[in-house]
Amino acid sequence: MSIDRRRFIHLSGLAALGLAGGTPSKLVAQELGVAAERKAPLVGRRWAMVIDIRKCMAAEDCTDCIKACHLTHNVPDFGNPKDEIKWIWKGGFEHAFEEQDHQFIQESLKHLPTPVLCNHCDNPPCVRVCPTQATWKRDSDGIVMMDWHRCIGCRYCIVACPYGSRSFNWRDPRPFIDEIQEDFPTRSRGVVEKCTFCSEKLARGELPSCVTACKENAMIFGDLEDPNSEIRKLLSERFTIRRRPGLGTQPEVYYIV
Amino acid sequence: MRDNGKIYLGLTIFLILITFPIWYNLATGKAGYAPELEKAVKGEDCVRDSAYMSANHMDLLNEWRDQVVRDGERFELLSNGTTVERSLSNTCLDCHANKDKFCDRCHGFLGVDPYCWDCHVIPGDHTP
């Protein structure tokens, strides 16, 4: 668990109190009790994801990751593609990987539904164009975040994102959410939304919803800066591709084909 | 200056009329009216003392918002040693469970209409 300066000072102050008192003070005990029942947050320096398309295609017509994500984050379903809001969805392989497409592409890949989501680019064009810094790349772990309080709905980011990862709330989404989760906010009309790599779940020490929902274990989430992580092992052993790498956005979602 | 009497009479009536709301409120005891807020359903202490909270909760909420969203600092160690999550829906409304009788009573009386609830979910009440 990482400790920031403020918390370190709090804790060392409490510890000093405890030492001065001879026995652990009630305050320290209380603090430790709370800390114990709360899971330590998952901390990484560069979160990334590997998606194994072969494993994913083994479970035909499975939409578990999409359902889990959209349920957790109160993503509305307007029932028409014009207003559609999506954080993670399945696109045809030839659309997800345009540069791999050709006339005689392997039959099995042709219309293969490929899960796609925000790539949490290392060089995110959406961040560069946002006039209010409502979207920004977190220095601590590289997640491209959204601050819905700040978004003014100009939609520059939607234009800038080469992956179509961002959706705009043209209408009030509240009435179109089937089952509202109380621990996550909805959005209001006029803001853009997208995947945040479940930053709120990482803070609670849990993996992203899509990763835990996937029965095939086709999605692997981990820290690229940790040389011993599963994701680094996969990347060094398997051939992986990324979406539109030629644009220089350095996407951080890798695909095993 | 033959109309002095009428002028002063008129002025007096005018003053009485224009200050009527003040007299009326004083006479009926409504001048000191303040909305009565429901007590918290649980919890001994608030995250700050009551006087601070009633005057500055909006500043605290903005501070919390920035700490959580921008800096990812989701938890706060209070001076009484407990740790709370910085969350409107999950921490504030956990104790102040009835938004209608707590938030809205005062906001309604003062005519302020914060847009927190456009997005943040009121536990148990999901109407848009």
Number of helices of chain A: 11
Strands ordered across the widest β-sheet of chain A: 8-1-10-9
Major sheet characteristics of chain B: 2 strands, antiparallel
Give a short account of the largest sheet of chain A: 4 strands, mixed
- Cα(first) to Cα(last) distance of chain A is 35 Å
What is the averaged pLDDT score of chain B?
Answer: 90
CATH architecture of the largest domain in chain A: 2-Layer Sandwich
List the helices and strands and how they pair.
The complex is a heterodimer of chains A (257) and B (128).
Chain A: H1 5-21, H2 26-37, E1 47-52, H3 53-58, H4 64-72, E2 88-92, H5 93-96, H6 107-110, E3 113-117, H7 125-129, E4 135-137, E5 144-146, H8 156-160, E6 167-168, E7 192-193, H9 199-203, H10 209-213, E8 219-223, H11 230-237, E9 240-241, E10 253-256
Parallel strand pairs in A: 1-10
Antiparallel strand pairs in A: 1-8, 2-3, 4-5, 6-7, 9-10
Chain B: H1 4-18, H2 20-28, H3 50-70, E1 75-77, E2 83-85, H4 88-95, H5 103-110, H6 116-119
Antiparallel strand pairs in B: 1-2
Structural summary, described in words:
Chain A is of the alpha+beta class and 257 residues long. Chain A is built from 11 helices and 10 strands. Chain A has helices spanning 5-21, 26-37, 53-58, 64-72, 93-96, 107-110, 125-129, 156-160, 199-203, 209-213, 230-237; strands at 47-52, 88-92, 113-117, 135-137, 144-146, 167-168, 192-193, 219-223, 240-241, 253-256. Chain B is mostly helical and 128 residues long. Chain B has a domain at 50-119. The radius of gyration of chain B is 23 Å and the shape is elongated. The termini of chain B are far apart.
